[in-house]
Structures are given as C-alpha cells and as structure tokens.
Amino acid sequence: MTPPRSVLIVGGGIAGLAAALRLRDTLGDAADITVVERADRLGGKLATGEFAGSPIETGAETFLVRRPEAVRLVERVGLTDRLRHPAAVSAGLVVDGRLIDMPRGTMMGIPADATGVADVVGEAALARIAAEPDTGRPLLGPGEDISVGHLVRDRLGDEITDRLVDPLLGGVYAGRADDLSLEVAIPALAKAARTHTRLTDAVASLLPPPSTAAPAPVFGTLEGGLSTLVEAVAEASAADIRLGLPVRRLERWNTGWRAEIGSTRDPYHLTADAVVLALPARPAARLLTDVDEAAAELVGELDYASLGLVSLAIPDADLPERSGFLVPATEGMTIKAATFFTKKWPHLDGGNPLSIMRASIGRYGDTEALRRDDGALVDITHRELARVLGDDLPRPVAASVRRWGGALPQYRPGHRERMIRARERLAGQPIALAGAAFDGVGIPACIASGEAAAERLREDRP
User: Fold this and answer.
1) What is the pLDDT of residues 329-375, one digit of tens each?
2) Which residues form the Amine oxidase domain (predicted)?
3) What is the dotted CATH code of the domain comprising 80-89+304-410?
C-alpha cells in the first residue's frame, strides 16, 4: 500500500485535529495535511470563553480519564501538567422537587439491585427490581440493538426509566431513553446483555467491586480550558489550517479527490490523495452524495438535538457541596442539568467571591424553551435554580447564554450497523469518516474516531 502524500481533513473539531496529528506522526514532515473548517475557529464543541474573570467552557466541559485516548493526547502535546480533576463531591438528582444524592450501584441510572435507589422510586418499583424474572436466554441477541428505554421499561418499569435513566442519558445526549440505541449509548451494557439473562445481573457484572480506597478520578479537564488542547493539537499537527471556508463538493479526481471550497461566487479547488470527513452527519452526507449515494443515505439518517447553556455568576451563594445536579423530565422543569463550576473544579475557585454555575436547556423533540430570547432563558434558569437550592438565591451579577444548534447526535437503534454498512460502501477508496456522528459522543470517543480514520486511510490506500 502506498501512503497518501496529501490529505484533506474536512472539519476542525477534535476528531479532525486528532486525525491530522496521527497522520503527521505516521506520514512524517513531508506529508501535505490540510484542515478546512467552516467556522472561524477550530475546536467544534470544545470552546473555552472568559466569564466573570474565569475561563469557562461554553461547550463540552470535561473528558473521561478512564478511557485512555484523551489523556494520551494530552501527554502527546505536552499538556500533562495542566491536567486537573474535579473535587471529591458528588452530583445530585432532583426528585419530587427535592435535591437528593445520586443513587449508587447503578450504571447510567440502571440499578444492580434495589438497595441504592430506595430514595428515588416507590415500593412498587423496588419490588419489581427485586423480583426481576430470569428470561432463560440472553437479553439481547447476536447483532440485535434496541433502545435503552425499551430494555429498562420491559425489565424494571417506567419509574426507573423516567426518574433515573432518562435524566442521565439526557445529561449526556439531550435525548430520551426510549429513542437512544443501547449499543451506542451504553456499549458495555449491550455486550453484557448478550450473555446475561437478567438486567440487574448484567449491570452488577459491570460495576467495580466495593473498595475502601479513594476512587480514581473519572473525569478530567485542563487548566486554562479545553481550547488549550485544541490549540496544542493543531500546532503539533503542523497542518495547513483554513478557517471560515465551507467545502461545497467532493468528487473523485484521478486516484484521489478534488474539493470545491469557499463561497459560491468565488470557489477554489483543492486536490488531495485522501480525505477525512470529520463532520456532523448531514454535511458529511451531502459531500458523500457524489461519492456513494447509498453511503450518504445511511449517514444522513442521524438526527440531532439542540442545546442551550446558561452560565450565571452569583455572589454570596450558599451552594451545597455538590458538583451539580440532574433533572428528570418528569419534574416539569426547563433546565435538565446544572453544574456548580466553582464547587466541582477547585482550580477555578482561586478566591473568586462569585459562584459560577451553568445550566443546560434542551431535550430532543422539545425546542420550545430554546425559542425564548437570552434574557428569558437567564430568568428561567435563575428561577429554577432557586426552586431547587432555595428561594433566597441571589440574582446573578453576570450571565451568558450559548446556543448550540444540532449539538448532540441522537443514535437510534441500529446506528452502529448503519455506520458499518456506510464504511463498507466506501472501503477501498481513500476516504474515512470521523467524529461523533459515526462513533459516539465524548472527547475520548471523538479522538479515537479521528485516529482510527487516519489509520484507515493507510489501510485502504491501494
């Protein structure tokens, strides 16, 4: 196989940048690597801003450290000394208007037994957990995929699904348990469900054993913000970065590709041996239409949820010792989650007298709240925070609203199989797909997807 001498990466989020860096590491200094990004900045959903005197994430806030990809990339670009972990405070859950501890002994809200969820659900739900029947066969057949909600409602009932599973999935995906693929949203549980005959047993098999030792950190971020990772990866890749330019068309050209870039009035063309599409589903499908229409249709099926993030700086706030809380949709509130930044991240405190908190608004299929203007969203957020934390919560002295249209993929059952089929359609051609649209949300997943795309170009190059 002949390695590509030139690669065009369409999309400058962390997946596209991870692909650029892996290509640089494997192809060497002579390779011509170009990253074209429609926006006027790199990073995609990684965006650090300045708010009330502190750096604050206006997009993704943190990454899993138990997956190695993000930490490994941080090390690769020399930012290990900036790695920070959250304080040892737990998250809460709003149930019947009360803020309670997040139940233990669960996976994405699904319990291994009734013990840890007694404060959240009623006696009937507890009895159903304890009496879950044995199916006599695996919960999930080979190659089968169902929604998380379908499995949990069938085995443990509505109350567990609505009060526990739904808010946790909503916090990650802004989606609903009844819509999201088990195989993509909770892949470890999908694997366990192919061998276990009870859901509680499948969950129990995945939980770590009890330990008296301090738990290892689950999440991490970087002092100075996640945009520092974006900048460092872009610099290390030594790619030719082109911002504010849409890629309008992609076509085969000799043994490689030709892309039409820029405005419709004054486009220019760029040729490359290979291409990485690190884009959301619909723009990726549009570019794939002239390459393989069937692949484009498979990719374009994915839908997205929009999101609003409201940041508040509140003086003299008496916040609980928590990292934040989640809100089930059954509570009838507009906000679905809140993070207490200055409680969760000790490096952000720094003697700042203001409490910085951020609330998330927007669930898939419910866009009414996001139609309100910024001032209304700030008022709603403060009012609902006060409802949970106490009516004497002071008014904010600073507020910021960031809207993310089409922010989070909504993986329907069968998503992974559809992406396998799309990639099979493209096999043998010097083109690869990368990012959350294809391989799951979260910074480590996107990094892994970008790096895998870079490796795939070498494997599929004739």
Assistant:
1) 999 999 999 999 989 998 876 666 889 999 999 999 888 999 999 99
2) 14-457
3) 3.90.660.20
